[in-house]
Amino acid sequence: MTKPFKTLDDMGDVAGKRVLVREDLNVPMADGQVTDDTRLRATLATVTELADRGAKVLVLAHFGRPKGQRNADMSLAMVTKPYAQVLGRPVRFVDWDGAADAVAQMQPGDIAVLENTRFFAGEEKNDPQTVAMFAELGDFYVNDAFSAAHRAHASTEGLAKVLPAFAGRAMEAELDALERALGNPQHPVAAVVGGAKVSTKLDVLKHLVGRVDHLIIGGGMANTFLAARGVNVGKSLCEHDLTGTAEAILDAADAANCTVHLPYDVVVATEFKPNPPTRTVNVHEVAADEMILDVGPNAVEALGDVLKNCRTLVWNGPLGAFETPPFDVATVSLARTAAALTQEGTLVSVAGGGDTVAALNQAGVADDFTFVSTAGGAFLEWMEGKELPGVAALSR
After folding, report:
1. Whether 74 contacts 85, CB under 8 Å
2. How far is CA 185 from CA 137, 178, 314, in A?
3. For the chain, which residues make up each domain, given as ranges?
4. Domain spanning 8-169 has what CATH number?
5. How many Å apart are CA 214 and CA 277, to the nearest integer?
6. What is the rounded CA–CA span in Å between residue 234 and residue 220?
7. What are the start-end ranges of the H helices in 55-208?
8. pLDDT tens readout for residues 333-392
9. Are 331 and 322 in contact (CB under 8 A)?
């Protein structure tokens, strides 16, 4: 099947060629140590394949927000050594001063990390001069950083216009998974959308009601929908000024034959702290001094039954205040149901966003989903149905 974008399989012979590879090396660090190397490991497939094919691999990445200025605290020189340990092969660091000479000295199969692309003001402005300066160092361009694909920067979008451009293996896997989840999915499709506020997910919800068969709303945002339906949500987090918007989304769902699932039993407490006294009640029994902090067991069981009848699941956001025990129970329970159905082969499950990844890790099932995206903003914009500039630039 021909993909809508070119991959490493379309590159041909790259032996001795200079390949600029946009990766996401923006890893968390403390005291000079990388505290989570997930993003470094995600680059392995692409970088090692190109090196093994004899390319001179030049990794482009940003680190932090230096705002177009050189900043020693945001130099990718710090990441080079830990990156070499993850790759299990030598990695050299190349500063922009004298970059052309350093690249000329590289041998086929060598790997180098170029200094932070955001040290140039032209990177985030997608300035043609910055694009040209980057492009001078390469013969080919590979974008492997889906997490930065919603930005039209020099290193994510500009280079794809001036060099032969291809998707790396991580980008390819991400785009394939997203195509299976919402582009061309097997129906019935369910979407779980959670999080604190409706306001941050409005565009997602509006887009999804026309694409999915079941929309499961959790987190604090569910309270706004409950309030729109006339439920008294007590002291719960709730955007009362958005109940009209919530009603409009519910009406749009009705018109599109999309079933919206709101919790009908909930876990409440009078204070928000770890392990307070709680009670599980029907949503119509929330007292004035109580707040809804998780979905109740009956609703979670019913949602599990919904997933058993679905073929595809896309998940963004927790069902409750999962960072604070015991309000992680619903999220963990439904995630385990989804993981089990995925392992049985009846469900394609795609999840994304920082909170979601953390919740799936907490449930111990991140590896059991079909695909888990570590991208935050890019995954959200994709769920909103927006075109991602870094992806659009790779299309055939």
Report:
1. no
2. 40, 9, 10
3. 8-169, 185-383
4. 3.40.50.1260
5. 33
6. 13
7. 77-87, 99-104, 121-124, 128-135, 159-162, 169-178, 202-208
8. 999 999 999 999 999 999 998 788 888 988 999 999 999 988 878 888 888 888 888 888
9. yes
Q: Helix, strand, or coil here: 360?
A: helix
Tokens of residue 96, six digits: 């922009």
pTM, entire model = 0.87
For residue 105 the two structure tokens come to: 């000295």
In SS3 terms, 180-209 reads as HHHHCCCCCEEEEECCCCHHHCHHHHHHHC
What residues does 18 pair with on adjacent strands? 56
Peptide bond into 326 cis (omega under 30): yes
Contacts of 321 (CB under 8 A, 6+ apart): 219, 220, 272, 293, 294, 327, 328
Q: Which segments of the chain have a pLDDT < 70?
A: 1, 396
Question: In this predicted structure, what is the pLDDT of residue 87?
Answer: 96
| Catalytic residue annotation | 39, 197, 354, 377
What does the alpha-carbon distance between residue 350 and residue 248 come to, in Å, rounded to a whole number?
27
Q: Cis peptide leading into 108, omega within 30 of 0?
A: no
What's the Rg (C-alpha) of the chain? 23
Domain 185-383 has CATH 3.40.50.150: no
Q: Which residues contact 93 (CB under 8 A, 6 or more apart)?
A: 76, 77, 80, 112, 113, 115
Helices 169-178, 44-52: axis angle to 10 degrees equals 130
